[in-house]
Amino acid sequence: MLRMLLALGAGGLFGAGLMLSGMTDTAKVQGWLDIFGNWDPTLAFVMGGALLPMALAWRLTEGRRPAAGGSFPAPPKAELDRRLILGSVLFGAGWGLAGLCPGPAIASLSYNGWEGALFFTAMACGMLAAPALSRHLDRAAANA
Amino acid sequence: MEADWIWGLGGGLLIGLGGAVYLLGNGRIMGASGILGGLLDGSGKSTAAERSAFLAGVVLVPLLIGLATERTPDTHVTGNAAVLIAAGLLVGIGTRVANGCTSGHGVCGISRLSLRGIAATAVFMLAGILTLAVLRQILGVI
Questions:
Q1: Residue B17 in contact with residue A57, Cβ under 8 Å?
Q2: Given this model, what pLDDT does residue A144 score?
C-alpha cells in the first residue's frame, strides 16, 4: 500500500512539474532544440531544477534502503552500446519532429486533444514494436 | 514570457522531487518510457501495480490542476496526423531500444553522473537539434 501511495505521489509531482514547467508546450520544446532559429532557453532551467533534488536523492541512497523496502538500483553500466546510441538517435528525431517526449505526452493527455491522443497511441505502438528491434541489435552485437 | 524561466525552474524542481520520492521511497528510477513501456510489453509485469499508480498520478494531477484553475497550458501541438504518427513511433521505438528518455537518461542518469545517461542525452538532444535544423530552418516543413 505504501508503495502504491509513493508511486502515485511521485507520478503526481512529475506530472505537475511537466505541466507547470512548460515541458508539455511543444513550441517551447522545439524552441529549445531550434538553436539556429528563435532559441528558447527555458528547458535549461527545467533540467537544472530537476537535477538538483535528484542529485541530492542519489547522495541520500548511500548506506540506506528504500523507505518502502527492496533495494536501490545497481550502479549504472559504464559501457555505451549500439542500442543506446541508435535508440537515442531515433528518439531525438521524433522528439524534435513533434516536440513531445514520453513524460509530457502522458502528463498532457487530459488537455492535448486528439493530437496528443494520436501521438500517445503511436508512441505506445512503437513501444510494443521496440523489443523486436532490440533483440535484433543484441544478436548483431553478440555476433560481432 | 519574462516569467517562463521561473515556471521552468519551479516545474523542474517538482519533476526532480517526483524522481527523488520514487527513488528514495520505492527504490526505482523514474523513467517515463521505462515505466509505461514495461507495462505495455509485459516486461514489468511483477511491478505492474506500482507502474500503474505512478502513471495515474502523472495523468490525474495535471487534470485536477486544470479543473481547479480552469486553465491548461497551450500545447501548440501540430495538427498534422502524419507527423504525429511518425514522431510517436520514433519516440516509442527509440526510447525503448535506448532504455530511457528525457526523465530516465536525462534527469535520473545525469544526476548520478552515469556515462550512459549523459551520452544518451547528448545524442537525443543532437538528433532533435538536427531535426529542427533540417526540417524547420532548411526545408521549412515543421
A1: no
A2: 74
Provide the pLDDT for residue A143.
Answer: 87
Per-residue pLDDT averaged across B90-101, rounded?
A: 98
pLDDT, mean of residues B60-66: 98
Residue A45 lies in domain = 2-143
A13 with B92: Cβ contact below 8 A: no
Sequence ranges of the domains in chain B: 77-142
Which one-letter DSSP state was computed for residue B46?
G
Lowest mean pLDDT: which of B2-6, B25-29, B87-91? B2-6
- How many distinct structural domains can be found in chain A? 1
Contact check, Cβ <8 Å, A87/B96: yes
pLDDT in tens, B24-34: 999 999 999 99
B97 in contact with A, Cβ within 8 Å:
yes
Least CA distance to A36: which residue of chain B?
A: B133
What pLDDT score was predicted for residue A9? 98
Mutation target to probe the B interface, by most B beta carbons within 10 A, among A1, A8, A14, A29 is A14
Is A62 an 8 Å CB contact of chain B?
no
- Residue numbers in A near B9 (CB within 8 A): 21, 45-46, 48-49
Secondary structure E strands in chain A: none
Round to whole Å and give the CA distance between A45 and A7.
25
Rounded-to-integer distance, Cα A132 and Cα B10, Å: 39
Question: Which residue do the cell numbers 532559429 mark?
Answer: A37
* Rounded distance between C-alpha atoms, residue A85 and residue A40, angstroms: 26
